[in-house]
Design a protein that fits this description.
There is one protein chain. This protein is an alpha/beta fold and 289 residues long. The protein folds into two domains: 2-114, Neutral Protease Domain 2 (Neutral Protease, domain 2, Orthogonal Bundle), CATH 1.10.390; 123-287, no CATH class. The protein contains 13 helices and seven strands. The protein has helices spanning 2-10, 35-53, 97-101, 105-111, 123-140, 146-156, 169-172, 175-196, 203-212, 223-234, 238-246, 255-262, 280-287; strands at residues 12-17, 20-26, 60-67, 73-79, 86-91, 264-265, 272-273. The chain has a five-stranded mixed sheet. The chain has a two-stranded antiparallel sheet with strand order 6-7. The longest helix has 22 residues, at 175-196. The protein is globular and about 50 Å long.
Length: 289
């Protein structure tokens, strides 16, 4: 019994962050980095999500860390939609303390806890949600440079552009629209909510209302319920209007015009910022703690 208890203690730990409990288990105690680095990595990802949301997405989540395989931090996945949630992530032999410090994967998976499971064909809304919010949350905590966030969007969003003659995101299902098209949806929503409420509301208010109504990763919701709940909280029908434009039919996003409005200036040496742009204040507010 003593040996079994010792193994369990070595292969499991619990992280608590402002009402959010992560029960982590390791497939092996033979880690590629010190155990303290792994615990700090989990704590930081949890704090990224809680600080952005202003609350825990769920009370508790099991986290299975599979140690071994190849490479460094590998793929992750959040399992939910059936009344419970769990996260799995791979930790390869090439993992270093530095790679844990800059990791985005675990934060991405934890953001899935803050949105309900949607019907088939709406994966782009779920993946885009985590793709957009993960770097925003890390910038807010000083874990990532603001310019790096916007450079990532400048580089990534073109991969999600809908083709004028193709289907909307509901019927596409390919990688670019699923992740980057979805991220574009949530970025446009965040900007439009802030613009149409004169900065009084943002995407956080919509997500907060969805969570208040029980719409976390453990639950299954319709898109109609999701957008109606979020729009009621902000007082503007942004989510519904954007979904109708991007889900069932293709919508082109004029990225050049978007960057100009926000004061994001792409260049060969990376993005710079124009604080005199019409929506520069919105750009700054998105990443403000």
């Amino acid at each position: 019994m003593l040996v079994l208890a010792l193994v369990a203690a070595l292969d499991a730990f619990t992280i608590r962050v402002e009402g959010f409990t992560v029960d982590a288990t390791l497939s092996s105690a033979e880690l590629p980095v010190p155990r303290t680095n792994v615990e700090a990595w989990v704590e930081s990802a949890a704090r990224n999500v809680v600080r952005y949301l202003g609350r825990a997405p769920v009370g508790r989540v099991p986290l299975r860390i599979r140690v071994g395989g190849r490479g460094a931090i590998g793929s992750g996945r959040m399992f939910g939609g059936e009344g419970d949630v769990a996260i799995r992530i791979n930790l390869g032999p090439a993992t270093t303390p530095a790679s844990l410090e800059t990791d985005w994967v675990l934060t991405h998976e934890m953001f899935h806890l803050a949105l309900p499971d949607l019907p088939e064909g709406r994966e782009w809304m779920e993946e885009g949600f985590a793709t957009y919010l993960e770097p925003v949350a890390r910038v807010r905590r000083g874990r990532m440079a603001e310019a790096e966030l916007w450079q990532g969007l400048v580089d990534g969003l073109p991969k999600g552009l809908a083709k004028a003659e193709g289907p909307g995101f509901d019927a596409d299902g390919s990688w670019g629209p699923t992740y980057w098209g979805g991220a574009g949806f949530w970025l446009l929503a965040d900007v439009a909510i802030r613009e149409r409420t004169a900065g009084r509301k943002s995407l956080v208010d919509a997500v907060d209302a969805i969570l208040d109504a029980g719409g976390n990763g453990a639950e299954q919701w319709t898109v109609e319920r999701l957008v109606a709940t979020g729009d009621k909280a902000t007082g503007v029908p942004v989510l519904r209007e954007l979904y109708e434009k991007m889900g069932p039919r293709p919508m082109r996003i004029d990225l050049a015009a978007l960057w100009k409005r926000l004061g994001v200036v792409p260049g060969p040496g990376g993005v710079t910022f124009d604080d005199g742009a019409p929506q520069a204040a919105i750009r700054r507010a998105i990443t403000r703690p």
